[in-house]
Design a protein that fits this description.
The complex is a heterodimer of chains A (354) and B (188). With 354 residues, chain A is mainly alpha-helical. Chain A is built from 15 helices and 5 strands. In chain A, the strands form 2 sheets. A 3-stranded antiparallel sheet of chain A has the order 1-2-3. Classes of the chains: A mainly alpha (354), B alpha/beta (188).
């Protein structure tokens, strides 16, 4: 069933898309440096920008998400904010850059995911500015005139010269081959996860094709067709270039268009983990909540107070008439309450076992 | 994948029968979907005054509080009414579900920064087998089968799936064996 359009999210997403267009105009010097061959990628990226911002805006408006979003921003922009800058940077480095929490789940999984993440991130950093016309390369005319002279390229960013380097140099090799390195990293990582999903019974039982297998296939296809472009012009004299260019563009655009909807949206959601960590730290400073039954500390007072509000907003009233809430009990305390209630009911019936 | 799910088979819990042997805990860790982590809870109720123990599996609520309070949309319920453990790529380890579940079921694995919970041994139940814990419970506290089977085993009990927590009525997929004629259980 189609959900009604969220007007606020629609306006924010439209603004973000228009701002991106404006930045494209500025960065490409009124499309002077825009590569028309990349127009299909541009439309795919603009769609992704709109979709991602729309979904993100809808997402952070949900009561449980809003609590973390607002709390993190309030903390970082409060008087106490400076104390959290170091914490946030460290957390970002450990959990977003190095993805420690995945490595702890399994070293191989952690490493494979890191390969995919680095590959994707670098590829985004390269292809998005290229597509937007923010980066382009020109051949230094003098070096191009003399067939014997080494070819010198100049890299431009936002229309400004950044640096010049010979094509046949280490910088040239790394720069023009960067996307190939990204592809290799992504293929290694995605293949590792794909073989797991084809072998492990627990994953096979719970996975779905569109949610778990397709994203991996898509990553592999994007990378393979990307490598195919290099393969074609290096070893096949460009004989299959059009075919490779079209298939690569097709898979990349499917990836971009699907990004706001499918599994890849977790790339955008993941930094919320830092928000959850900050929230925990803030709460810890304000004091811990004690379970009414076990009398042990189980979470922060802030967490319990916010959960009471969130559950109400989500339509649950877990409080009794005396104002006592089940949320005042720890998970163990709740299990005990249920066991006690069950025992009492059995006892009242006059038979402990039915 | 789930074409063999036997909808006629249900889970029946009778924690009054739990003897605290923890066989279910060991069996649970064998479930392929948990990655060797045990998801079932067995604990003493109040060790200083009683030897009573309790056992708790996920009750698989009709409208799961855990999924509703999840800020990352990581918890989903499928067409069989099974509430699945957190999607590993989405869960941000906030513990909202752990603290909001009225039955105290989800576990936060701090090391992984991930919530995990019982998904009724989906690798087994989705192919027509019984959950690990129910196959090893020696005292009948955990039973998985048809209503006719449990009726024959416990003629003086009635399975209920309605629980009252304050003003909230929570309906679950998993049943609790109560004295004959019961319709609900008030916990708070």
């Amino acid at each position: 069933m189609l959900k009604p359009v969220d007007l606020k999210a629609f306006l924010i997403a439209s603004t973000a898309t228009l701002l991106t267009l404006l930045m494209i105009l500025i960065g490409s010097r009124r499309l002077q440096n825009f590569d028309a061959a990349l127009i299909a990628y541009l439309f795919g990226t603009l769609f992704a920008v709109f979709g991602i911002v729309y979904r993100y805006t809808v997402w952070i408006q949900r009561p449980p998400t809003r609590v973390y979003f607002v709390s993190s921003l309030k903390t970082l922009f409060s008087k106490d904010g400076l104390n959290f800058v170091g914490y946030t940077l460290k957390d970002f480095l450990l959990n977003i850059i190095f993805q420690r929490f995945i490595i702890r789940r399994s070293k191989y999984r952690g490493l494979a995911h890191l390969f995919m993440a680095i590959g994707c991130f670098l590829a985004f950093c390269i292809t998005i500015p290229l597509t937007f016309g923010w980066i382009h390369f020109t051949l230094v005319p003098d070096s191009g005139m003399d067939p014997a002279a080494p070819k010198i390229y100049t890299a431009h960013f936002f229309g400004f010269d950044v640096m010049s380097f010979p094509v046949k140099s280490i910088i040239g090799f790394l720069t023009f081959g960067a996307l190939n390195w990204c592809s290799i990293l992504v293929i290694i990582g995605a293949t590792y996860f794909l073989q797991r999903r084809l072998k492990e019974p627990g994953l096979i039982a719970t996975q779905t094709f569109e949610g778990d297998i397709l994203p991996l296939l898509l990553l592999i296809l994007v990378s393979l067709t990307g490598l195919g472009l290099t393969l074609d012009y290096e070893f096949m004299h460009g004989k299959a270039y059009e075919f490779m260019a079209v298939t690569h563009a097709f898979f990349v655009i499917v990836f971009l268009v699907w990004m706001p909807f499918g599994k890849f949206f977790h790339i955008i959601q993941r930094p919320a983990q830092i928000g959850a960590h900050i929230y925990k730290e803030v709460g810890r400073k304000q004091g811990m909540q004690q379970c009414k039954f076990t009398h042990k500390e189980y979470t922060t007072k802030l967490h319990v107070a916010d959960l009471k509000k969130i559950t109400k907003e989500m339509g649950f009233n877990l409080e009794n008439k005396d104002g006592e809430s089940i949320l005042d009990y720890s998970p163990e305390g709740k299990r005990d309450l249920l066991a006690i209630a069950h025992f009492k009911a059995r006892k009242q019936s006059g038979d402990f076992f039915g | 994948m789930a074409e063999y799910y036997k909808l006629q088979e249900e889970f029946f819990v009778d924690m009054q029968r739990c003897i605290g042997c923890k066989a279910c805990e060991a069996a649970c860790a064998e479930c392929e979907t948990n990655g060797q982590e045990s998801m079932i809870h067995v604990n003493y109720v109040d060790r200083s005054t009683t030897i009573q123990t309790t056992v708790q599996v996920c009750m698989h609520c009709e409208d799961p509080v855990c999924a509703n309070v999840c800020p990352a949309d990581a918890i989903t319920k499928d067409e069989f009414g099974v509430v699945h453990t957190a999607n590993t790529s989405r869960c941000i380890g906030c513990s909202n579900c752990v603290m909001a579940c009225p039955f105290g079921v989800p576990k936060k694995i701090e090391e992984y920064d991930l919530m995990m919970k019982c998904n009724m041994c989906y690798d087994r139940t989705s192919v027509g087998k019984k959950p690990m814990c129910a196959t090893v419970c020696p005292s009948g506290a955990l039973f998985y089968g048809t209503r006719e089977e449990i009726q024959a085993k416990r003629p003086n009990s009635t399975p209920i799936n309605t629980f009252l927590f304050g003003e909230e009525t929570v309906k679950t997929k998993v049943n609790l064996m109560m004295p004959k004629g019961s319709t609900e259980l008030r916990v708070l």
